[in-house]
Write a structure and sequence with these properties.
Blueprint (H helix, E strand, L loop, with lengths): L27 H32 L4 H29 L1 H20 L4 H29 L5 H29 L4 H4 L1 H15 L14 H24 L4 H21 L15 H18 L1 H12 L4 H8 L1 H20 L2 H18 L8 H28 L6 H47 L6 H20 L22 H21 L2 H13 L1 H4 L25
Helix pairs in contact: 1-2, 1-4, 1-5, 1-7, 2-3, 2-4, 2-8, 2-16, 3-4, 3-7, 4-16, 5-12, 5-13, 5-15, 8-9, 8-16, 10-15, 10-16, 10-19, 11-12, 13-15, 14-15, 14-19, 15-16, 16-17, 16-18, 16-19
Length: 569
């Protein structure tokens, strides 16, 4: 009998032997919007706070060291909580954890705005980090659960694009809020967004079935991983201030290294592991996590170096520098949705590798900037970074989580975010350390060249040359003692004795030549930090090529079955 003859009247042809096409959740696009709104809020706050640090210093009468912990406390809690939140989501439900994240982030944003001192602000920012970890951990898993596999790349591309939009408008919005209000408004802006997101999420996002059969929470695993990530992050954040060889930093690093084998040993022994070690056998998951960590290293110090370069070398204001850097997230915003559609068609391997390569090449080009580089020289290089970010970030995120069974996508997403955060923190610490060393070396080199230039001047008498050399050395010593990162780039002879009338022209020429000398040496200090960041981007290419030929490919490994130990056959 023919297939047509077996088709029952009133039923589509799919019921006659072909499985129905998976269309995903009926409200999948609304789910994407509300989940992305939560992510938008969490990422927007990060970029706004970076711009607002000078205003916070003035408003709360604190110091640079004090305000640095407003940023560090958030990073510490994020790194510690990502993996734990993923496991909690798998155990109690992704919708519950996402709602918790929205409520926590909104409430602590309000408390940050009312903080009476920098100490309270640091504490409330840690609470924000807990909410942010919940939002960023489960948002991707919720999106992937709502869409069929053939549309997951497109959905993740849009999800990633909205995150880039937050990064794009954050600096500009922060500048406007501070200009027309004060620093507290950068936190108050989250309240209406959070209230709308909570209401819509409770209505739109479907309840998911918690995987209660997998046992209880792995409290020892949570404590071991949290302690290790805390020690690692704190050591990287404070190494430059406390000294890389200081006993505290060495002890923190040793503690972090010791917790890793202990954590892995425990996870292979407990019946309900926080992180099923068997996930590492899934090649696309492991490859994407490795690539995202290297990209985090590349991204970590890039934004900081770009702002410092534009302000100290190019001479732009912080707001104008932020607007120039916005080219990067804007381009990423345009590329990410198309990268998602490309991933649906050809798989994640080529788009993610191409994106990592673009990011690495862009940073190599950044390393070629010099003291005469203008805004356009920076912006066309930044375009490479934007394209690379738009291609690689959503593609690697989709490749990592889509390769996992739904029951462990929460902990898988938490692992991805943990690796990104750890890579980001390593990148910041590495680039800042290299930059600080390069600035100190180039400052000493510039001082030697400057004293030789003064000594070679034949238009000034011996007394004037001696006085100017003494002034130069005094200014150099004062700048080095103050820890100034860009010493004497504009007026190296500030405070020098007034020259005789006949020497005024020679003094002005000498002062301009010295200023240009210091300016160029400071610009040289950015070369090796950008090279170091470029290594992270280029290293990400290799694991990116191992993410699979199609989305959702498990690559020869399987996650352990519920209730079975990770080392069970």
């Amino acid at each position: 009998m023919s297939e047509a003859a077996t088709t029952l009247p009133g039923l589509p042809a799919a019921s006659a032997g072909r499985p129905p096409v998976d269309q995903g959740h009926p409200r999948k696009w609304w789910i994407l919007v509300v989940v992305s709104l939560g992510m938008f809020m969490a990422l927007l706050d990060v970029t706004i706070v970076n711009i607002a640090t000078p205003a916070i210093i003035e408003g709360l009468h604190t110091t640079v060291a004090g305000v640095s912990w407003v940023l560090n406390s958030y990073s510490l809690v994020l790194a510690m909580a990502f993996l734990s939140m993923g496991r909690v989501a798998d155990r109690y439900g992704q919708r519950r954890v996402f709602l918790f994240g929205l409520v926590a982030f909104t409430v602590f944003s309000m408390l940050c705005g009312f903080a009476p001192s920098v100490g309270w602000l640091v504490a409330f920012r840690a609470g924000q980090g807990l909410g942010g970890a919940a939002l960023m951990t489960v948002s991707l898993a919720i999106v992937l659960s709502a869409f069929p596999q053939r549309q997951q790349g497109t959905a993740v591309g849009i999800w990633g694009a909205l995150g880039q939009a937050a990064a794009a408008i954050g600096p500009s919005l922060g500048g406007v809020l501070i200009a027309y209000g004060d620093w507290s408004w950068i936190f108050f802006v989250n309240i209406p967004i959070g209230l709308v997101a909570v209401a819509v999420c409770a209505w739109i996002v479907p309840r998911d079935r918690p995987h209660s059969a997998e046992g209880g929470l792995d409290i020892p695993g949570i404590l071991i991983s949290g302690a290790g990530l805390f020690c690692l992050t704190l050591a990287l954040v404070q190494a430059d201030a406390w000294g890389w060889r200081s006993p505290v930093i060495v002890a923190l690093g040793a503690s972090a290294a010791a917790t890793f084998p202990v954590f892995m040993w425990w996870e292979t022994r407990t019946p309900s592991p926080m992180f099923p070690v068997g996930l590492l056998r899934i090649r696309p998951f492991t490859a994407a996590n490795t690539a995202i960590m290297f990209l985090g290293v590349a991204m970590g110090g890039t934004f900081l170096m770009l702002v410092i370069f534009l302000v100290t070398v190019s001479g732009y204001s912080e707001l104008r520098a932020a607007l120039a850097i916005s080219v990067m997230p804007v381009l990423a915003l345009l590329v990410a949705p198309n990268a998602g559609r490309l991933t649906d068609r050809i798989g994640p391997r080529l788009p993610s590798a191409l994106g990592a390569a673009c990011f690495g090449v862009g940073l190599l080009l950044m390393a070629r900037l010099d003291g005469d580089s203008g805004l356009h020289d920076v912006m066309w290089r930044v375009a490479f970074l934007g394209v690379g970010m738009g291609l690689a970030t959503p593609t690697l995120s989709a490749a990592s989580v889509a390769a996992l069974p739904p029951r462990v996508r929460g902990v898988g997403s938490g692992s991805l975010n943990t690796m990104r955060q750890v890579g980001f923190t390593i990148g910041v610490a590495l680039v800042v350390a290299i930059f600080s060393h390069a600035v100190a070396q180039n400052a000493r080199r510039a001082t030697r060249e400057a004293t030789a230039l003064i000594a070679a001047s034949r238009q000034l008498g011996p007394a004037a040359r001696s006085a100017y050399t003494a002034t130069l050395l005094r200014n150099a010593k004062a700048a080095a003692g103050a820890g100034v990162g860009t010493p004497m780039t504009t007026d190296p002879l500030a405070g020098a004795p007034a020259p005789a009338e006949a020497s005024q022209g020679a003094f002005r020429e000498l002062d301009a030549a010295l200023a240009k000398l210091y300016h160029d040496r400071v610009a040289d200090s950015f070369t090796w930090p950008f090279y170091a960041a470029a290594c992270g981007g280029l290293l990400a290419v290799v694991p990116a090529l191992l993410t699979g030929r199609r989305l959702g490919e498990q690559g020869g490994g399987r996650a352990p079955e519920p209730g079975r130990r990770a080392d069970s056959p």
